[in-house]
Amino acid sequence: MGHAPADGGINPDVVEDDQASWLALTDVLSRSFAAPRILPADHEKALASLRQLQVTATSPLGAIALNSGGILLYDGWLRIFGGSPCPEEGLPSIGQINNFPVPMDRMWTPTEGLIVAHDVLGGIFLLNGLRPGAGRPGVPGEVIYFDPSTLNWTRMRMSHSEWLAWCVSGDLPHFYDGLLWPRWRDDVMALRADQGIVVSPSLWTGETAAAGGDVTRTVASMAEVLALQFDAAQRHGRRLDGALGRFPPPACR
Asked: Residue 79 sits in which domain range?
């Protein structure tokens, strides 16, 4: 994560953008097997997100924030947050999902961590900050994953750049081995990016595999998916400290 200038002002270097990082990323996306879809950005909102992030536009994180309203991979199974919301798809911005201060606070930085993506089951990829939140594993600058099947955080042992490369490598479906179903692509493709899938029996009960054909999958808002997981984690004594993200109400998108 970047650092705010000593005087608390916005470092002008964060908005310098030669497009090289973004062009390199879009080239990788275009050649991947991840069926990527780049959502359009609102430049002013994206620029505000970049400035609050305090990372450079030449970093992959900054390039995504400045140049996209998010990136959908694997027909929408994975939703990477961009710098501005995409109302047409229902995807919040990285600022909204991480509850950035409004208006911009020049002294605020996401020191505990930053949610960078959700999956359709409510799994969360979070980039650890300089002081990772209580109960989260990993080191600063490492991506970790909140697993809805265990209600625990798992170390990915990847930097943000390494995680992005992994996302488009074609290996990501293997990560979800046992959770995919025959029609998963068709079902996921029909969803908006503010919708997810609630599985019953719940993934965290460990009964889903044993249920076989008795598993049901119900479309729900991502806010509902995350709320169910948060409540379950609380009942199991897990501390999440709001780290699952905040989907704003529709009128705010």
From this structure: 12-179
